[in-house]
Amino acid sequence: MNKTSAIAVENIVKLYGDFEAVGGVTFEVADGEIFGLLGPNGAGKSTLIRMMTTLIPATAGKAVIAGHDVSREPDAVRRLIGVIPQALTSDMDLTVEENLSIYAKLYEVPRAQRQRNIEELLEAVDLLKWRGAQTKTLSGGMRRRLEIARGLVHNPRIFFLDEPTTGLDPVSRVAVWEMLNNLKTIHNLTMLITTHYMDEADRLCDRIAIVDHGKLVALDTPMALKASVPGTNVVEAQFTRESEEWPSQLKKLAGVTKVESQSAGMYRLLTSNGSLTTTQLVELAVNRGETIKSLSVQNTTLDDVFVHYTGRQLRDEQVKALGFVMPPRPGA
Amino acid sequence: MKRMMAIVEREMRKFFRSPALMMVSMTLPLVQLIILGNAFGGKIRGARMGVVDYDHGSQALKIHEAFNAIAVNIRTFTTIPYDNEEKARDDVRTGRLDGAVIIPAQYSRRVLAGDSPTIGLVVDNTDQTMSSSLEAEMQSLVDALNAPVIQPKVVQQIALEIVELYPYVEYMKYLLAGSVALAMYVAVMIGGGMLYIDDKARGVHEGYLVTPITKWEMVMGLNLAGAIKAVLSGVTLTVIGSLLAGLGVIFHPMTVLQLSLLIIATSIAFNGMMFLMMVRVEDPLVPRAMFGVLNTLLFFPSGAISPITGFPKWLRAIAVVDPFSYAVHGFKAILLKDGGFAAIWTDLIFLFGFGMLTLFIATPLFKRTL
Q1: pLDDT for A218-266, tens place per residue?
Q2: Is A232 exposed, middle or buried (0-12, 13-18, 19+ CB in 10 A)?
Q3: From CA B82, how far away is CA B85, in angstroms rounded?
Q4: If B191 and its partner were Cys, which of A268, B214, B229, B317 is the partner (CB 3.0–4.6 Å)?
Q5: What class is the A7-226 domain?
Q6: Among the partner residues B2, B10, B14, nearest to A108 by beta-carbon distance
Q7: CB-based contacts of B46, cutoff 8 Å, min separation 6
Q8: Model confidence, pTM
Q9: Among A133-142, B131-140, B152-161, B345-354, whose mean pLDDT is lowest?
Q10: Which of B4, B209, B218 to mutate to test the interface with A (most CBs of A within 10 A)?
Q11: Residues B27 and B51 occupy one common structural domain
C-alpha cells in the first residue's frame, strides 16, 4: 500500500450472511484525484463507500483513509472526510444556512471559521440568495448542491459522493459536474464518486473502477479503459429486414472485431476503422438490395467498456432493478 | 458537548417550525379532558320516572309530594303518571322511561296499619350508572318516609360524619393529572419516537454518523431534545388544563416549583422509556402501530381514570412499573391536594430513576454504525 495514497483499500470484503456484497476489492486513490466507482444498482458501490466512511464495518480486509485505518481510527477518518449519501438527507424544515450551520457545529468548526466557510460554500454552490429559504422549497438540483456544500462545511481532505446526480435532470447534472470540478480545484480535494452514469464517470473521473457483483472487474483512466476494448469505434446499423446471414456478413467487413445483435435487424459493430467499415457496410447493403433504416458511427464509450468487461449492458441492469418490462416492438 | 447541543438545536428548530406537532400532541389530551371530564362524574339530572299509583291514598300522596320536591330541587328525575304497570315496565324496557315506581293498592292502609308496606321500583340495570342513581335516590326517599314523626328519647341511629379534606373535586379536575401525563406521552411518542424513526428511514442519521459525534453525544442530544419537547407540552397542558378545570393552585410559587420538577422527571422517564423501545427499530410503521397499544397499556392502569385499588392484581402489577402511575399520582398530589414535596418525593425518585435506568440500558443498544 502506498503511504501517500489518499485512499487505500486492500482486499475488502462485506458479507451479509451468505451473501457477498463486496468480495475482496483492492484499489488506491492518489491525493487530488477524482476516482469513480462505476457499476449498476446492487453492484456493491454503496457498500464499498459505506465501509470507507465508517458507516458499516468490513467483514475482512482493510481501508486506510489519509493514513488512518478506518476500523481502528474511525474518529480520525470522520474528521478528514466529507460524505454525501445517496439519499437527500438535508433537513427539509431547516433553512439552507441552518443545515450548513448544524453540520459545521457537529464537526466543531470554530464560530468565525464556520461563518466564513458557509459564506464561501453558499457562493460556490450558487445558493447565496437562497440561504434563508427552507430546504423543502428548493428544487432537487438545489438540494443536491446544498448537500454538497454540507459535506464540505468542515474543509475535508477527501470527499465521498454516493451517486451525486441520481434523480437530477440533465441540466442540473451538468451544473453539479461543473461545480464539483470547481470545488476540487479550489479546495484541492480528493474525490471518490460512485455512479451508474457512464457520461458522468467519463467527464468527471481521472480513473474509474468498474464494479460488478461486488468485484472490481477493471480499473484505469477512462481513455485507457476505452483503448482496452477491441475496436476503437462503434458502428450501429439497423436494417429493415432481419436475416440470419447478417452477423457472418458483417464480421467480414474491414476492421470489425466484434458483432453484437441488439434487436430485430439492429447490429452493433466494434471496429478499428470506423469510416472503412461504414463504407463497406453501405456497399454490402446495396449489393444485397437491402435498405439501411438507421446508421451511426461513434467512438468507443464507457458503455462499450462496461459491456466488454461485464458481458452485459449497464442499462439492462437498471431496467431489471426497476422491475421494468420492455413493451413488445410493434410488428415483432 | 457542542455536538450534542447541535443535535438539540436541530431538533428544536424542527419542532418550532412545525407547530402542528405541538398541536397534535396536545389535542388528544385536551379533548379527553374536556369530553371525559364533562361526560363522567356528573350527577344524573332529568331522568324520566313513571309512577303507577294503584292506591291514591294519603300515604301515596306523601310519595307524590316527595317526587315533586325531587323534581324541583335536586332534579334527579321528573315523574310521568301511568295507570298500567305493564305499560310502565314496557316503557322502561324500550327506553322511554329510565325507571318506574309502583305504589300498590292498599299501600296507605298498610302504612297506617304498620303492615310492612312495599313500593316497587323498576330499573333498567343494563345502565349501572342510571339504575344506581335512581336506587340511591329512592332509598333516601324511603328512609325519609320511614323516619318517625316524634323522635324517641334515646337516639337509635348512629350517624357517620364524613370529613372531606378538600372541596368537591369535579371529574374534570380528577382527570387533569392523567391528561397532563398523556400530553407528555404523546409529545414524546410523536416528537421523539416517530420523528426519530422517520429520520433514520430518511437517512438523516446516516448524515450524523459520518461526523465525529460520539454515541454518547448523539444519544444525549436526541434525549435532551425529546425531554424539552415533553416539558413544553406538559407545561402548556398544565396551564390550559388547570384554567379549564378551575384550579388556581398553579399560581402559587411552591406549586410551580413542584410541578416543574415533576414535569421534568416525567419527561425524562417517558423519553428514556421511548428511546429504549425505539433504539433498534428501523421501520417507520412500528411506532405508529405501537402508539395505541402503549397508550392503553400505560395510561389506563395508571389511575388516571379510576383508582388503582379497584384493579385486579395483574393490572396493579402493571401500575407498579408504569411511569404513568407515578406521574399521575404526583400531579394529583400537587394539583388537587397541595400535598407538598412529602407527597411527591417517591414519584420524583421513581421517575428520575426510571429515566436514568432506561437510558442506561438503551445507550449500549444504540448503533454508531448503520
Answers
A1: 999 988 888 887 767 888 899 888 888 888 889 999 889 888 887 778 8
A2: middle
A3: 7
A4: B229
A5: alpha beta
A6: B2
A7: B75, B77, B78
A8: 0.76
A9: B152-161
A10: B209
A11: no
Q: Chain A residues within 8 A (CB-CB) of chain B?
A: 50, 53-57, 75, 78-79, 81, 83, 85-87, 89-91, 93-94, 98, 102-103, 105-108, 134, 150
Domain span including residue B226: 2-39+170-365
Same domain, B30 and B73: no
Half-sphere exposure of A14 (CA within 13 A, CB side): 24
* Nearest-neighbour CA in chain A from B250: distance (Å): 35
Does B103 lie in the same domain as B35? Answer: no
Residues B239 and B197 in one domain: yes
Domain A230-299 fold? Alpha-Beta Plaits (3.30.70)
Tell me the three cell numbers of residue B214. 460520539
Contact A208, A222 (CB under 8 A): yes
Nearest to A86 by CA among A172, A178, A163, A170: A163
ipTM of this complex prediction, to 2 decimal places: 0.77
Task: Name residue B173's amino acid.
Answer: K
- Name which of B6, B9, B203 is nearest A89 (Cβ-Cβ): B203
- Has residue B324 been placed in a domain? yes
How far is Cα A312 from Cα A40, in angstroms, rounded to an integer? 11
Residues of B within 8 A of A16 (CB-CB) are: none
